[in-house]
Design brief:
This protein is of the alpha/beta class. It has 14 helices and 16 strands. It has helices at residues 111-115, 121-127, 138-142, 163-170, 172-186, 200-204, 222-230, 250-262, 291-297, 354-358, 365-373, 377-384, 394-398, 405-426, and strands spanning 27-28, 34-39, 56-57, 62-66, 69-74, 79-88, 94-102, 149-153, 190-196, 209-213, 245-249, 268-274, 280-286, 307-310, 317-319, 332-336. It has a 6-stranded mixed sheet with strand order 1-13-12-16-14-15, with no helix packed on it. It has a 4-stranded antiparallel sheet with strand order 2-7-6-3, with no helix packed on it. The chain has a 4-stranded parallel sheet with strand order 10-9-8-11. Bound molecules: iron/sulfur cluster (SF4) (2 copies). One iron/sulfur cluster binds at residues 349-355, 365-366, 369, 398-401, 403, 405.
């Protein structure tokens, strides 16, 4: 495998939306009649679940999968469990979907109230994994190397999205409290907050190291921030944990701060909603609210072949049903009208080199794409640096032949990971 630095010549093309002043409060979505929560483990009907259809649950209650599997989710509403099923996410990822028929009257679960007085890492890991912003506590356990730096993203990695910039502006006190608790429970003293220049004055009030992020895409992608702030590159095939770094979003840190200050676990997600006319609105909805509820609140009708994307325009993923719920890490939803969809073709590569010039990882994308189109994933990995890709999507964006290069790359990584996991299991 070629060990190539991921930092290459970057052709600046597009800019992030930097928040200059506090935007209006997010549009509030009422608690719907049903919410659907995902537990991050595949559903097997043969398992002895700790959840049953007909169980009554309270808002903030921890819903555990089984005695043998510590996966859980926090109920974002009060009501009765009406279904437990298997659901497939992106690239074959499998979840257990728990649907709750909600009550009009909300009852708050109080198990966390006693725990808030003495914050510990175990408490955070066992209760806060599915909070808004989806904090990554497992990174502290899974990493072979100890974490010595936490980077808090006060800027979203993809374009159009203002979710974490808004949280930074609106929830400074909660973030400051969250940073104090994070330092205490993880014993990590080096905490960096990454913000655009326009939020520098807000971030300074947090009393931790502030770094500014260039507003030219893709400067806010994690690999590029790490290179800019620490001078380190993540070795090919390794993760941030391998160089002692863990990321949290500003929303996750604010959620940690609020949870321990109030004794109740936040269950409302903030996200940027972008409608068919590319109008951006910040929205606040219970985790588990379906996309169709959001569309109704905006009076949007989906027409045949319109597309819904979770995430930003460069790196987001299309979802296949408006019944898909808002997840703890859903920072943006884009609704694209069919006449505005990016055209994707099966034209051949004309070897123009635009993708190579744009690639921040310095990958010979024009060569890589030939192997990916032929399904030669091992060769793509060995000869053309597949795993150096930092998944910015610029190659697809600039491709004159409209080849979905980025999606080929994601598929190739997924297929290779499957093959390698199967080989390791057999061995
Ligand atoms: S998505 Fe494309 S442009 Fe971006 S790093 Fe990967 S190969 Fe390079
Ligand atoms: S931008 Fe598209 S057409 Fe041009 S070299 Fe890259 S893959 Fe080929």
């Amino acid at each position: 495998m070629i060990k190539r630095s991921f930092i290459g010549f970057t052709k600046p093309l597009i800019a992030y939306d930097a928040l200059e002043s506090a935007p209006p409060e997010p549009k509030q979505i009422q608690t719907p009649k049903k919410i659907t929560l995902f537990i991050d483990t595949p559903y097997n009907y043969k398992d002895s679940l700790l959840l049953n259809i007909g169980d009554n649950v309270k808002t903030g209650q921890r819903l555990s999968y089984s005695e043998d599997n510590d996966a859980y989710v926090i109920a974002s509403a009060t009501g009765t469990i009406s279904s437990i099923t298997s659901i497939l996410g992106d690239y074959g990822k499998s979840y257990t979907a728990v649907t709750i028929d909600t009550n009009e009257t909300e009852e708050m679960d109080d198990h966390f109230t006693a725990l808030r007085k003495d914050p510990t890492f175990d408490t955070a890991k066992n209760y806060l994994d599915s909070m808004p912003g989806k904090p990554s506590f497992n990174r502290f356990i899974d990493s072979e190397n100890s974490i010595d730096t936490i980077i808090i993203c006060g800027m979203d990695a993809d374009l159009y999205i203002k979710t974490n910039q808004y949280i930074l502006k609106a929830e400074l006190e909660a973030i400051a409290n969250g940073i104090r608790i994070l330092k205490d429970i993880t014993q990590v003293d080096h905490v960096i907050i990454a913000v655009p220049e326009s939020l520098m004055q807000d971030a300074i009030l947090l009393g931790t190291e502030v770094r500014t992020v260039n507003t030219e895409y893709p400067a806010a992608l994690p690999h590029l921030m790490v290179k800019s702030f620490t001078g380190q590159a993540v070795p090919v095939g390794k993760d941030f944990g391998d160089i002692g770094i863990c990321f949290f979003t500003a929303e996750a840190v604010a959620s940690i701060g609020k949870t321990f200050a109030n004794g109740s676990i936040p269950v409302t997600k903030t996200f940027t909603f972008i409608d068919k006319n590319e109008i951006k609105t910040l929205v606040s909805a219970k985790i588990g609210t379906t996309v169709s509820e959001i569309l109704d609140a905006f009076d949007i009708t989906l027409d045949e072949k319109d597309r819904i994307i979770f995430g930003g325009p460069m790196t987001g993923s299309a979802i296949y049903s408006a019944d898909y719920p808002i997840l703890p890490d859903t920072d943006a939803i884009i609704v694209q009208a069919r006449d505005k969809l990016d055209y994707i073709s099966d034209y051949p590569c004309i070897n123009c080199g635009d993708c190579v010039r744009s690639c921040p990882a310095n990958i010979p994308v024009n060569m890589l794409v030939r192997l990916l189109e032929a399904g030669q994933y091992e060769e793509a990995s060995d000869q053309y640096d597949l795993y150096s890709c930092i998944e910015c999507g610029l190659c697809s964006y600039v491709c004159v032949s409209k080849i979905p290069v980025f999606h080929y790359i994601k598929l190739a990584k997924y297929e290779l990971d499957l093959t390698r996991t199967a080989e390791a299991t057999n061995a």
